[in-house]
Design goal:
Layout: H1 15-18, H2 21-24, E1 30-31, H3 43-55, H4 65-79, E2 88-91, H5 94-105, E3 111-116, H6 120-128, E4 132-137, E5 139-141, E6 144-146, H7 149-159, E7 161-167, H8 179-191, E8 195-199, E9 225-229, H9 232-235, E10 243-246, H10 250-263, H11 270-282, H12 284-308, E11 313-314, E12 322-326, H13 336-343, E13 346-347, E14 349-350, E15 362-366, H14 371-387
Parallel strand pairs: 1-13, 3-4, 3-7, 7-8, 8-9
Antiparallel strand pairs: 2-10, 5-6, 9-10, 11-12, 12-15, 14-15
Length: 390
Amino acid sequence: MEELVYLDRRNTNCGKWDGQTGMFGEEGLHAMWVADMDFKVPACVREALKRYVEEGVFGYYKVPDTYYQAFIDWEEKHHGYKVEKSWICFSPGVVSAFNWIVKFMTEPKDAVIVTTPVYYPFLDAVKNNDRKLITSDLVNTDGEYTIDFEDFEQKIVKEQVKLFILCSPHNPVGRVWKREELTRLFEICRKHQVFVISDEIHQDLTREGYTHVPSLSIGEYHDMMISITAPSKTFNLAGGQNSIVVIPDEKIREKWDQFVKGIRVLSGNAFGYVAAEAAYTGGEDWLISLSAQLDENFRYLKDTMQAKLPGVKVTTLQGTYLAWIDLGAYVPAEKMKEFVQKKCRLAVDYGDWFGGERFATFIRMNLATSLENVKIGVDAIVNNLTVDPQ
């Protein structure tokens, strides 16, 4: 099994560690926010990039068939569904992709629905493109989240929703949706002619006992759906700027092609393609090691909180490497940022970023780092609340 190698990323132009001023107004916080990892990428990726660099010429790049085949093989082996090469389109990131889709699948002022709390660029994609944001809150039962299907459908009807952006697995609550849940969502969308974007960037990061179901694998909704994924979360390759947009329906794919021709973003950089192909071809053992580390990190967080701060609600982590934590039993919403940043000296994603003040007692913590770093973050919260309760 390939060893997981931790890297101290301070002073490496790392956005998470060295670029905190924009979000937090200062530097030097213990970084547990942006969703990337503090681990070196798989050895196969490093070797592939070394070979490419040693060639010494970085001109225009022809994307090889082996790149597409590596992704196709990965999806079939790990997620049980067959992607055809013609379905695969390029975007530099999933955020870029769903912003583009919002533009060409809806009109200004059209309503777009999301299930909150949710990854905040979903909210930005709706608002920044002059669409009407509609939110349907997930139901939180003691840290277990489910979909409020009645609320979801009622709002679609009332607001004449045109598009739904799905997060699967869900960020930040870590839910891995079951096939029957997805089918029910898609049936509602079919009934009311709502187009679906399925963001599946965390598809490979499920915990033991949970299985990701690709939205397109359900098979009956190809004419109303685009799926987006990437190797960036799975293998820590966000810097490669390489995401994969899967569009089985030819008419929808024609709309995509027309849009990207208009903005002239037809392909990515060579380094991203080389890294992605290598990761999908040879990164499986590394991913197994990563999963074991994530399990250990989450176990420490949950066990410590339960033992020391039993009022803290730690959401069950089914997928992603992002812990969703409710500190409301100890810290009031209006003091959350002061407590976390000024007292604990942590950089985290705050709950209100994911859908408003009703989530302001939550924080999201990135666990894709060393156990030592997780202990620093968790212990800072525990110690500050034990010594100086709010």
